[in-house]
Amino acid sequence: MAETKPGLKGKILILGLGNIIVSDDGVGIYVGRQVKDLLADPSVDFIEAALAGLQLLDYICGYEHLVIIDAIQTEGGMPGSLYYLTEESLRSTVRLASIHDVNLATALELGRQMGMSVPEMLDIYAIEAADLKTFSESCTPKVAEAIPALAEQIAADIREKRVSSSVTSSPGVQPPHNEPRTRHQYVPARIRLRF
């Protein structure tokens, strides 16, 4: 299983999840690629993956901050809607009925209990998918239209957290008290996650 990787302290992993040959399922990868290009930061790694559960631990252990980007389908959700979740919003989904059906929250909790160095910070971004079944190398129109806005938002959020953490890590220095910037409106997260 995963071990701490040397040299990852302070690094961010952007994990784009999905399958780029299944229509909207590839949106996590498409958004992640754009975020990587927008940031062009050596302290940010980007991985494309089509996996879930315990397999995630092999990729994420050792990183300080994990950003997951994926497609999502919610009851009554509008294609192209953006979602933001934290680890706290996943806590109620921790369960272990079978080792073959481990979700993200359960994998993180198991990793911690086994003493693995799972990321301290977790941000999850998702776009409501319209089609997760059709073989296609492109997203549906509403989902494709949402990709640039979410990529810009994620890049801005990462930059903001980097500045905030570097300022607060200096002794005696307080973070700046800027006016809150306008953020994209995310849909409330009353959802069932696929990962």
Model description:
- The protein has 195 residues and is of the alpha/beta class.
- It has a single domain (12-168), classed as HybD-like (Rossmann fold), CATH 3.40.50.
- The chain is built from four helices and five strands.
- The protein has helices at 27-39, 55-60, 104-113, 141-168, and strands spanning 12-17, 44-49, 65-72, 82-86, 121-128.
- A five-stranded mixed beta sheet has the order 2-1-3-5-4, with helices on one face.
- The longest helix is centred in the C-terminal third of the chain and has 28 residues, at 141-168.
- Mean pLDDT is 79; it is low at 167-195.
What would CATH call the class? Alpha Beta
Main β sheet profile: 5 strands, mixed
Architecture per CATH nomenclature, i.e. the level-2 architecture: 3-Layer(aba) Sandwich
Gyration radius (Cα, Å) is 17 Å
Shape: globular
The overall average pLDDT, rounded, is 79
Ranges where pLDDT stays below 50 over 5 or more residues in a row are: 167-195
Number of discrete helical segments? 4
Number of strands: 5
- State the domain count: 1
From the structure above, extract its key features.
Rossmann fold; 4 helices; five-stranded mixed β-sheet; alpha/beta; 195 residues
Entry summary:
The chain is of the alpha/beta class and 195 residues long.
Topology overview:
Layout: E1 12-17, H1 27-39, E2 44-49, H2 55-60, E3 65-72, E4 82-86, H3 104-113, E5 121-128, H4 141-168
Parallel strand pairs: 1-2, 1-3, 3-5
Antiparallel strand pairs: 4-5
Helix pairs in contact: 1-4
